[in-house]
């Protein structure tokens, strides 16, 4: 999962780097957002869902619902490729790319998000 360069870093090196990042975040003044330390216990479930959704793309061809595939022009290549594959497999898929947005598009604007653009895309999709 994730960019290839992260998978190439050995765990013995990656784990301390992540730990250092978490500790650095905890030294900052508190905000309204959950810290990575608070979110970390949920990551196993996140990764489980992603892993379960992995596999042969042709199994998504049985989806009969209309599906919106929403991506950002600045998202990592591996996410763009995944949306491209899904767009070819899901019979009633609509793809919409948000110009200038990345994977954090649904986040708040102070976190580089574009929630207004995401909301507009969703409203347009569901109104159609």
What does this structure look like?
This protein is mainly alpha-helical and 128 residues long. 51% of the residues lie in helices and 9% in strands. The protein is built from 5 helices and 2 strands; from the N terminus they run H-H-H-E-H-E-H. The chain has a two-stranded parallel sheet. Helix 4 links the parallel strand 1 and strand 2. The chain is globular and about 45 Å long. The two termini are 33 Å apart. The model has no long low-confidence stretch (mean pLDDT 92).
What is the count of helical runs? 5
Average residue pLDDT: 92
User: Order of SSEs, N→C?
Assistant: HHHEHEH
Percentage of residues in DSSP E strands: 5-15%
Largest sheet: 2 strands, parallel
**Amino- and carboxy-terminal Cα gap:** 33 Å
- How many β-strand stretches? 2
- Unreliable stretches: none
Radius of gyration: 17 Å
Question: Helix/strand/pairing class, anyone?
Answer: mainly alpha
> In what order do the strands lie side by side in the largest sheet?
1-2
**Rough shape?**
globular
Helix content: 40-55%
Fold blueprint:
Blueprint: H1 4-8, H2 11-26, H3 36-53, E1 67-72, H4 77-89, E2 93-98, H5 115-127
Parallel strand pairs: 1-2
Kindly list the characteristics that best describe this protein.
128 residues; mainly alpha; two-stranded parallel ribbon; 5 helices
Compact overview of the structure:
The chain has 128 residues and is mainly alpha-helical. The protein is 51% helix and 9% strand. Strands 1-2 form a two-stranded parallel sheet.
